[in-house]
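Training component of the fellowship. As part of building independent skills, the fellow (R.M.) carried out the full modelling exercise for a liganded target. The chosen ligand was C2E. The inputs are recorded below so that the supervisory panel can assess the work.
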Amino acid sequence: MKAFTAEASPMSAQQTDDPVPNLLRDAMASVTIGFTIYDPQDRLVMCNEAYLGMYETSRDLIVPGTTFEEVVRKGAERGQYRQALGDVDGFVRERVKRHQNPTGKPFEQALDDGRWLLIVEHKTASGYLVGNRLDITAQKQAEHGLHLYANVFRHSGEALMVTDRNNCIVAINPAFARLTGYELAEIEGQNPRILSSGRTPVETYQQMWANLQSADFWQGELWDRRKDGSVYPKWVVISVIRDESGELTHHIASFTDISERKAAEERISHLAHHDALTGLFNRYSLQERLGQVMATAHRQHMPVAVMFIDMDRFKLINDTLGHDVGDQLLIEIAQRLRGSVRESDIVARLGGDEFVVVLAGMEAAFDVYPVASKILQRLGEPYDIGEHTLHTSPSIGVSVFPGDGDTVEQLMKNADAAMYHAKEQGRNNIQFFTMDMNVAALERLELERDLRTAIASGGLELHYQVQVCSVTLQACGVEALVRWSHPTRGMIPPLTFIPIAEECRLIDGLGAWVLDEGCRQLAAWQATGLGDIRMAINVSAQQLRSEQFVDQVRSTIAIHGIRPQDLELEITESVAMSDPQAAIRQLQALRDLGVQLAIDDFGTGYSSLAYLRQLPLNVLKIDRSFVKDIEVDGNNASISASILALAHSLGLKVVAEGVETAAQRDFLRERGCDYLQGFYFARPHAAARCREIIESLALPRPA
Ligand code: C2E
Ligand code: MG
Ligand code: MG
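Fellow's submitted model of the complex:
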């Protein structure tokens, strides 16, 4: 035994034969309890090694005969036991009190090095104070850990629930109470099934228990019910807790409310399956659903109709009035479509102005007709969008399963072909698919491809038709008309390929070529003595809208060195009308270049007089439908006469188109029409022939 024993120690007072004191000393030396004895004057009598180990730093102070107070004060001077002592005088007073009247109640002492001691003191009958000190640091740390875990449990943002081995609820945390509305008292001892809503599939629970059994773990989605009755989805993680012997003791479930995440997922899924603008199904959903509908119809031997719907002149509205108006129009069209069919029918938007309606559950194929007619009528009614009243109409193509195809692609393709046919038939009508249409659709595709090549490789040509002055009957100008001589199909009329060029965005290239070629020809004629002659060139709606168009005209004039006033640009009435403000701006910019502006095919659109007045025009061309039979058709005669009067009152020159007879010529001359154009004078011809015609008419001096 290394620890000292005081001479006065009762254990060492006399060396007797009695072995007990020595045994006691040895026993004290071998225990881990810090052992001390103080005499009635509070002087240290003895202590054991474990005690010295507990106060290692002041080992040298702890010597027999020293009073407890001395040890404490010296230790305090060295700065030891700051934690344990705190206020030294107070500590000493406490100690004196305890020495005189120890309670025997254990108390704890914290040491500077982080250790904790549990101290128990007893006073013997003879007035000695016996102290025991137990190092409880490990126990303290464990307690601290438990405290920490309890706090984690309490303050976790995730709802936590603990159930026992019988799956009865034993603990919940505040987040659980917040989420579910239940306090522990209300559900303690209950099975967690009281939380369920009945909405989670039975298979999910089966899966959950199977996983908990095999892997002690499960995570997944459950639909539960809150105390207030509301049902919500939650993401749950459950772990099984086992003791050292492997026995199941608890389940811990943590979960979060995933209502918001689910809602976001649903929104994303909706976006993936629906057209963002109209909320209708998109192409992907359409194909998926059409496939399902066809499979059912196949089993039930019933027809399915696919309707392709394309809005006539939509591009024009969209490009001229702007995309906002176009979008509003599409939304309105979608609403009308939905309102025209049953809830169970599929309505989709493929993009642009293309819609598809799928009708299932019909008794017979011809049942589609009344529905298609209703759609035709509804979509053809005027649309009030902002301050505009817009007119458009649908062209509808129909294919029917199984006769017109037994795959989704075939049915869609054939309905599309039928829709093109409806367009060719003058739009605003319904066409049912026939085999010939496939051929027509293919031909159109070929035509588009060939046109691309023709534009790129100089396969187009300009013909020129003279315009004569009605007074002198001499040529005063020509209109350039584009011609396409197809390598295998021969001459294709512009009314066939210009719409294709417009649809496929080939018109800018085509138009640029026409403008350049027309100006080049005019310069060539003027350079070779043809004198003052005007070149009229047709401009398509899309060209006019293009930002670069004004610059293009300016530079073309400059390149060929022609006078701006010798160039006349013909714009059709509908183009000028569809977006008045933009048209006025663009036309004014062209007028500022000094070129002449003509409104073509006048009378076929809906121009109002008031509006016409705002356009910076020079020339008005009366459409040939009014010139036809003008000498015998009273109606046409009066329309032409009033157009003439109107135009002159606005200071415009008038050209009559399609003059085919001497009678028409005379009628128009008598009513003061300024210029005449038509087969009566000359058909459109290639440049060389046209020049001969001009010369034969003898060149006039312009008015
Ligand atoms: P438009 O500008 O109204 O051209 C007049 C059309 O009437 C021409 O048809 C011409 O051949 C035809 N025509 C002229 N006189 C008579 C007549 O006495 N009787 C009859 N029945 N027809 C007559 P074309 O060349 O087939 O052109 C048709 C339309 O194609 C043009 O109508 C114009 O809108 C468009 N077009 C022609 N060339 C171009 C072009 O280079 N660019 C653009 N954007 N459009 C063009
Ligand atoms: Mg024209
Ligand atoms: Mg015309």
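The panel noted the following from the submitted structure. Residues 479, 538, 570, 600 surround magnesium ion (ligand 2) (CB under 6 Å). Residues 156-263 form a domain with the Beta-Lactamase fold (CATH 3.30.450.20).
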